[in-house]
Amino acid sequence: MSTPHEAEPMEISAVQIPQANSRGRVIVASLIGTTVEFYDFYVYATAAVLVFPALFFPNADAATALLSSFAIFGVAFVARPLGSVVFGHFGDKVGRKGTLVASLLTMGIATFLIGCLPTALVPGWVFWAPALLVVMRFMQGLALGGEWSGAALLATENAPAGKRAIWGTFPQLGAPIGFILANGIFLALSFGLSAEQFQSWGWRIPFLLSAVMVIVGLYVRLKLVETPAFQQVIDQGEVSKLPVGRVFKTSWRPLILGTFVMLATYVLFYLMTTFTLSYGTTPATIEAAKAKAVAAGKPMTADAIASWVPGLGYTRNEFLIMLIIGVVFFGIFTLVSGPLAEKFGRRKTLLWVTGGILVFGLTFVPLFGAGLVGVMALLIIGFTLMGLTFGPMGALLPELFPTNVRYTGSAISYNMSSILGAAVAPFIAVALWQSADGSPVLVGVYLSAMAVLTLIALVIMKETRDLEYTSNVS
């Protein structure tokens, strides 16, 4: 049978399969998982810098402890492609509902248990504490590998005709909401607790609080029924026995295109969050850097002084507030992107937005160098573009694949792009920043280069807005 990328576009039939899942239930069920995903990312990333080096690697020097903490952070990215295969297999073989419940439960248990872990400071736990942290991060990554695509399919496979891109923005809203929740909680803790209290027990609170979102999500997801599109696959007897093998055999081209279509989105997101935070909070002068290190009880070594590069010199709380303001625009324009992608098509909308990302990458230096107004303008423009490019992906990536391999295909593309874009972007950005003696010019060029690769993928792919979505199989 022909696959969506091989077939000529067909208008969606006006006769719709009755919807069994209400709009409100779909919104909450699809939104909650991605909210927990991005909430977890920022909670762990912040803890990895502030407390995990001292709590889980107390016998290492400061630099080694920080690197070890970030290495564990990266374990989740390694696990995500495996999770996309595992959960994609069950999502295309057993169904969307059960797989979404399993992925959220796995993620919730792992996140909660991080907040319960003993640290390496406890006698007898020097080895086991960091080892268990690795296991928890791996389980989080495994669950996240299948979470996004399942949430996207839940939204789009329940969407009315002509509304897939709009409904596809529901899970995408989890990114800005998770960011605001995580950083809002850390800001509240920083104002309400002393440094000693946060180091002792306060860091556990954000991890434990994630259980509330997970419980709500499980309650809603357990009430779902199977999506109409996958129910048709079951009724037609077209369920794939081995979805991962089938998707590579019949849909290898969409796998590649989907990976690169998502690339600029991932790079932009992690540059706008992790890199800007690092650059914005790095002291602007070597004297300020030395004073900051002494105040933290860790004077700079000769090597650290020699390798130091200047930043903008904001405090962490100051820059987090600025980021949260920028992320509000991320959320607003994620919602705006749905109607745009529905009216003009996914491909045309993303061609224009990706072109904007390319130009934006070349403005890093003049905006970052224009004081507070310039930095806020950079954050607002960057996060606006982020919303416009991230929003349509909830519909576009699933639309690239036939129904019986859609969970697996969209999950693999999404998570392979996360490795090429998200996993390496912070390290590349820091290396480019240091090589340019503290100027972000090469970081912007890097973003523009990734935008070019995404533009090439968009030029090659066909429009997916009007492709038949419910009964097509590979």
UniProtKB/TrEMBL annotation:
<dbReference type="InterPro" id="IPR036259">
    <property type="entry name" value="MFS_trans_sf"/>
</dbReference>
<dbReference type="InterPro" id="IPR005828">
    <property type="entry name" value="MFS_sugar_transport-like"/>
</dbReference>
<keyword id="KW-1003">Cell membrane</keyword>
<dbReference type="GO" id="GO:0015293">
    <property type="term" value="F:symporter activity"/>
</dbReference>
<feature type="transmembrane region" description="Helical">
    <location>
        <begin position="173"/>
        <end position="195"/>
    </location>
</feature>
<feature type="transmembrane region" description="Helical">
    <location>
        <begin position="375"/>
        <end position="397"/>
    </location>
</feature>
<feature type="transmembrane region" description="Helical">
    <location>
        <begin position="255"/>
        <end position="273"/>
    </location>
</feature>
<feature type="transmembrane region" description="Helical">
    <location>
        <begin position="201"/>
        <end position="220"/>
    </location>
</feature>
<feature type="transmembrane region" description="Helical">
    <location>
        <begin position="319"/>
        <end position="338"/>
    </location>
</feature>
<feature type="transmembrane region" description="Helical">
    <location>
        <begin position="418"/>
        <end position="436"/>
    </location>
</feature>
<feature type="transmembrane region" description="Helical">
    <location>
        <begin position="350"/>
        <end position="369"/>
    </location>
</feature>
<dbReference type="InterPro" id="IPR005829">
    <property type="entry name" value="Sugar_transporter_CS"/>
</dbReference>
<feature type="transmembrane region" description="Helical">
    <location>
        <begin position="442"/>
        <end position="461"/>
    </location>
</feature>
<keyword id="KW-0472">Membrane</keyword>
<comment type="function">
    <text>May be a proton symporter involved in the uptake of osmolytes such as proline and glycine betaine.</text>
</comment>
<dbReference type="GO" id="GO:0005886">
    <property type="term" value="C:plasma membrane"/>
</dbReference>
<feature type="transmembrane region" description="Helical">
    <location>
        <begin position="41"/>
        <end position="60"/>
    </location>
</feature>
<feature type="transmembrane region" description="Helical">
    <location>
        <begin position="66"/>
        <end position="88"/>
    </location>
</feature>
<comment type="similarity">
    <text>Belongs to the major facilitator superfamily. Metabolite:H+ Symporter (MHS) family (TC 2.A.1.6) family.</text>
</comment>
<keyword id="KW-0812">Transmembrane</keyword>
<dbReference type="InterPro" id="IPR020846">
    <property type="entry name" value="MFS_dom"/>
</dbReference>
<dbReference type="Pfam" id="PF00083">
    <property type="entry name" value="Sugar_tr"/>
</dbReference>
<keyword id="KW-1133">Transmembrane helix</keyword>
<protein>
    <recommendedName>
        <fullName>Putative proline/betaine transporter</fullName>
    </recommendedName>
</protein>
<feature type="transmembrane region" description="Helical">
    <location>
        <begin position="100"/>
        <end position="121"/>
    </location>
</feature>
<feature type="domain" description="Major facilitator superfamily (MFS) profile">
    <location>
        <begin position="26"/>
        <end position="465"/>
    </location>
</feature>
<keyword id="KW-0769">Symport</keyword>
<keyword id="KW-0813">Transport</keyword>
